């Protein structure tokens, strides 16, 4: 190639992958992209530092065991989440760009981190190590958990290499900021158990399920990969039935949801939505009140209704009587029993709030429950759907990615922030293999709501989850 050729021609040729070396007189087109990624990494890292300092302290080092405001996700995490999603997306894209392709694929295919996390959570290694702040020798720890010390070393070194636990001296391990999350008292321990047990087994069965015509084209929750895995063991119904029929699984699921809601920062909605203008709220599929109690603490003028199945409401009342007797006696909370697939008995609330509900169901069933909510709404009611919203991976204005409030990643990142939003796509697969359901794009969610006579009003991008507000179609 002649050096007289235009820069555009050079860039075009290189962007299409032709040639082995940059032509004389041309700048490698990847250099500008790499420099942009490095700039994004620096910007987002400093933004994350600023978020920590806004909440009282500098960023805690990995070896620190001191608590911080963000550890319990009680503070407004939106700023930090947005900084971290850009940082993770840019770092992953940078490594994927510069490393040989086989290197990247091999790393991802050979990642056994999840299996070691499961072992650590099941054996309560973090609990045992906590009794030895300066560290404990793997030989002594092996006696406590009853495992060969060489095998235990293999597991701990893999975890510590990615900063979960730390090796303070040869074969001596201590806790750090990541490993303390695996303490048995932390709900994240149950989340690890859920994600590394049922979800991993169902995901491993994904190919077998999709090769079975009876299951491959069905959206029936009884035809998920998880239920396909159990069909020869006589299990029928849905994953909900399996968990409901097993007290241990039900307990793990309940604690795991508390952990997950903390991680994804769902309570950030209390900081960004104008609740001061709201008088009545119905939490649809409320569970035991994970949203309602913080709502009432922050906005005591609100009257909240918990709406769920009878067994869930009974448990919510029991826990409320134990932990919040004053609230139970007040006129600020109501417990209502029902099935949102049958009817919504709570009429005319200012806000109907649905968190992690719509993603549990197929389009048909989701539309059904949304129609029931719509029929209960008054002319001035609002529906808030708080869920994961999957962003497009292409920069196409026709896909809905440009909706007001919906963040799009800066170039050269993927528009959906790539690995910075990876948990959404992992959760999408989890919903598929366990419940035969899915996360949705904004267009998909709006399409379902339109069938229920609901119109998009506004949305709030909270850095991981999104709150989408709908109003009745008049």
Automatic annotation (TrEMBL):
Keywords: Methyltransferase, S-adenosyl-L-methionine, Transferase. GO terms for molecular function: O-methyltransferase activity. The keyword Glycoprotein does not apply. It comes from the Eukaryota. The keyword tRNA processing does not apply. One of its GO terms (biological process) is methylation. Residues 238-390 form the O-methyltransferase C-terminal domain. Pfam families: Methyltransf_2 (PF00891). This is S-adenosyl-L-methionine-dependent methyltransferase. It comes from Lyophyllum shimeji (Hon-shimeji).
């Amino acid at each position: 190639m002649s050096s007289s050729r235009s820069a555009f021609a050079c860039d075009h040729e290189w962007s299409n992958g032709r040639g082995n070396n940059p032509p004389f007189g041309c700048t490698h087109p990847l250099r500008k992209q790499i420099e942009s990624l490095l700039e994004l990494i620096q910007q987002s890292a400093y933004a994350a530092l600023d978020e920590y300092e806004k909440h009282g302290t500098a960023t805690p080092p990995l070896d620190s065991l001191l608590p911080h405001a963000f550890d319990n996700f009680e503070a407004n995490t939106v700023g930090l989440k947005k900084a971290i999603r850009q940082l993770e997306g840019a770092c992953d894209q940078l490594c994927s760009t510069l490393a040989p392709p086989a290197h990247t694929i091999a790393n991802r295919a050979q990642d056994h981190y999840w299996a070691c996390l499961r072992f650590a959570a099941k054996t309560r290694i973090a609990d045992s190590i906590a009794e030895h702040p300066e560290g404990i020798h793997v030989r002594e720890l092996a006696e406590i958990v009853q495992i060969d010390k060489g095998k235990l070393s293999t597991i701990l070194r893999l975890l510590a290499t990615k900063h979960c636990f730390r090796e303070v001296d040869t074969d001596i391990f201590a806790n750090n900021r990541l490993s303390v999350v695996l303490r048995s008292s932390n709900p994240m321990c149950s989340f690890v158990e859920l994600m590394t047990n049922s979800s991993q087994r169902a995901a491993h069965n994904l190919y077998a399920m999709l090769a079975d015509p009876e299951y491959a084209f069905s959206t029936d929750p009884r035809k998920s990969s998880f239920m396909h895995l159990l069909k020869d063991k006589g299990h029928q119904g849905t994953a909900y039935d399996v968990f409901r029929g097993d007290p241990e699984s039900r307990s793990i699921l309940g604690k795991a949801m508390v952990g997950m809601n903390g991680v994804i920062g769902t309570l950030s909605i209390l900081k960004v939505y104008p609740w001061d203008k709201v008088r009545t709220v119905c939490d649809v599929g409320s569970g035991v009140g994970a949203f309602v109690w913080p709502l009432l603490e922050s906005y005591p003028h609100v009257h909240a209704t918990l709406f769920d199945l009878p067994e869930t409401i009974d448990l919510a009342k029991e826990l409320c009587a134990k932990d919040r007797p004053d609230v139970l006696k007040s006129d600020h909370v109501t417990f209502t029993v029902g099935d949102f697939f049958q009817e919504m008995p709570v009429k005319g609330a200012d806000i109907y709030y649905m968190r992690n509900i719509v993603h549990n169901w197929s389009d048909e069933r989701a539309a059904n429950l949304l129609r029931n909510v719509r029929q209960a709404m008054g002319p001035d009611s609002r529906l808030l759907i708080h869920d994961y919203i999957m962003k497009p991976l292409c920069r196409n204005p026709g896909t809905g990615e440009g909706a007001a409030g919906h963040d799009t990643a800066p170039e050269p990142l993927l528009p959906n922030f790539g690995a910075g939003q990876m948990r959404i796509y992992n959760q999408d697969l989890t919903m598929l293999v366990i419940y035969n359901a899915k996360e949705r794009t904004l267009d998909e969610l709006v399409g379902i709501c339109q069938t229920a006579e609901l119109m998009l009003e506004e949305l709030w991008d909270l850095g991981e989850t999104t709150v989408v507000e709908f109003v009745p179609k008049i």
